[in-house]
């Protein structure tokens, strides 16, 4: 088995060498890559899962044997980032390969899209699904969308052949009456055990048709997986791209009967363990159907844990703070790449982001990158397949439309920090910026700004270059539909 | 390989079943167990390593492939405790199987033993080495002792056939002149890169003779391992017990040339990665020499990270606080049990402590437990070998001679909390005690004392029973030798 994998790896490397050789000679157009060799892609995206919420990332009481096995058989990335610290912009970044401020999916007035939002991801944007369709992929989105709930913005109108899921967050369309200023937070910190499915009138949609409302969230993780398994089985003849975006462990937390009460970590743990179990079903399907060797699976989450929801929220482990902030806990996520025979198992401490998936998968699929717009991703192939360094040297931490922090190599400069989920969140501009060495000090405890002005200067130069190429699109999140 | 392991496991279970059957009939005395079947024991004890400092326990930039493999091939325990949150009492607990306050190795006046301390572990105590010698084991202590530096207290006078190591902490016998009230802390937070071996006049001892002074700490991890490997090789014919207590990553941090500058985490990471490498050497030796199947290896540490030493100290991951405290970060440690073919690989969330090793190993070796004294350990065999629940239901968190907190099942009550390593550390008595559910809330964020008075009452009952059997020995740590 081991030898076989090694052989397959060598064969793959050989093929790739030849392929790039031909490419550089201009003999073969990039999109003429043999269909049979194109890998399948599966992105599994959890919601509000913290850096520290998996066993293999250090959680003591959440049992995640399937994801731990995936990490062991694949690459466990420890410096992997999302494009924003909240849902909508993070998802826009993943699917477009661009910072959300370029697509209008970032705002200082509305953190995310709501059921009464007027807009969605604009059609000028190229989604990863649209990109892969140009080279013959079948595409499906299963799970939470959150890039526009109106029909024109739903996945079938953004490059996905098939859609089954909810259009925005599972805590929206609230039918409960909330009292007092802390009413919303009380839902998670005091009342979470008493919530009903009917408290959230979230629709479940197939393609563009509502098929269930309220969506039964107790069985939704299982049903997303059932749909995914059926779709893979039906679409295995062509190369495929599945975007499986579980809408949990975002509050409200619901587990199926099978998982209710099984985790030592309480309901939050039940929910994560149910996701783990269902990821295991996907892995077993791929192995049993002989698809594992030619499929690249990525597991990560959209942003850090929602700390404000107390025990209903996750943990960022040793990282500072969580969802909604530009501290590490808000934007660094567990990330596992898995593809037996293709990806060399190891722990990867190189830099990567969800935006790099667009570039990486495009290259693997032979789809030329868009040239009419600024892209924010890099091709991670050197790390995934060749044990080399990441081409990525910087990470940009936007909050809304503003650049709050930048990481260059191990150093992160915070130009602005701001509280979140409190009334009148305190916003502080730092001059000089706070400076942390994240490799040595992952918890951002020791400000080095006094000691390394030259590093700050170097980061400021990176920021200048970044800003010079930055064209921000108008804010599309803030506008709400008029009440009828 | 897998099948073979399974077979060996079944065979072992069968033998054990028969053995316990015979035992219960009184046909066979417990110490007549066949010498050839007795497993070897290796305890690898790190110093000041935090819960979050290994890759498999969530650290993003410390690379520990050998310990991660050990965790994967063995049992990774996530609720494993030491007997005290500082060196001397923790080591006394490990080696005697008793809370250190019973042996006099706990004090409210002197946290640990110092080079001018008058006493050591009293000879009335039975060490695990002495216990195993009664049933024919060869025994060695390699590394840091810290249970009395005078000859009468050194390992050869406490049941070890062989000793090679330093008698107390590697930061003692300081030859530097320290200025100002924060002088000692400045060593680790400001000057650590400039420390010399000669700044610490710590002796290296073979058996009872000083062979090097100051000990060359740059090569000490490697040399401890070399000595261990040689000793194992020479003593493999009899069952053996090796206690390998690395004196790092306790400050001062020193790495060998080979490891200096290799870790992204800086010098602390270099040091941990050098320990990891050397643990790998031991594992390979056991595998290559055919000893792995009949040897039980345990890796853990004496207490949590010394947070006060900033980047020279480790991380407790998501656990609260560190060394010197009775918060989880002070006393919960990474713990890996490894014995291919004997121990079923899994993540274990059951309760265990270092004091349980005495009971567990005694049973495996066929050595009857002492009956003339109160022991604080339980036999962990049901968890290690039979996939059952831990017989341990409670953990006692002493600081010095006082009981500060008690965990019963998932609930921990703090009766006293106290700051540490600050001038006049604030001590707070809590009535009712603070109450946390550690399974749901491992970071001890949400006090439940108002909600669950009945759980507090149940814990108080456990405390009453515990206190009724508690006989505290006189404080043996405080007394210093008279200056000549």
Q: What do you see in this structure?
A:
2 copies of one chain form a homodimer. With 484 residues, the first copy, chain A, is of the alpha/beta class. Chain A has 3 domains: 1-30; 39-394, 3-Layer(aba) Sandwich (Alkaline Phosphatase, subunit A); 396-468, Arylsulfatase, C-terminal domain (2-Layer Sandwich), CATH 3.30.1120. Helices cover 27% and strands 18% of the residues of chain A. Chain A has 12 helices and 15 strands. In chain A, strands 1, 2, 3, 4, 5, 6, 7, 8, 9, 10 and 11 form an 11-stranded mixed sheet that branches. Chain A has a 4-stranded antiparallel sheet with strand order 12-13-14-15, with helices on one face. In chain A, a hairpin with an 8-residue loop joins strand 14 (411-418) and strand 15 (427-437). In chain A, helix 7 runs parallel beside helix 8 (267-288). Mean pLDDT of chain A is 93; it is low at 12-32. The A-B interface holds A 52, 55-61, 63, 65, 68, 72, 78-79, 264-266, 268-269, 310-311, 315-318, 332, 347, 349, 410, 438-443, 445-446 and B 52, 55-61, 63, 65, 68, 72, 78-79, 264-266, 268-269, 310-311, 315-318, 347, 349, 410, 437-443, 445-446.
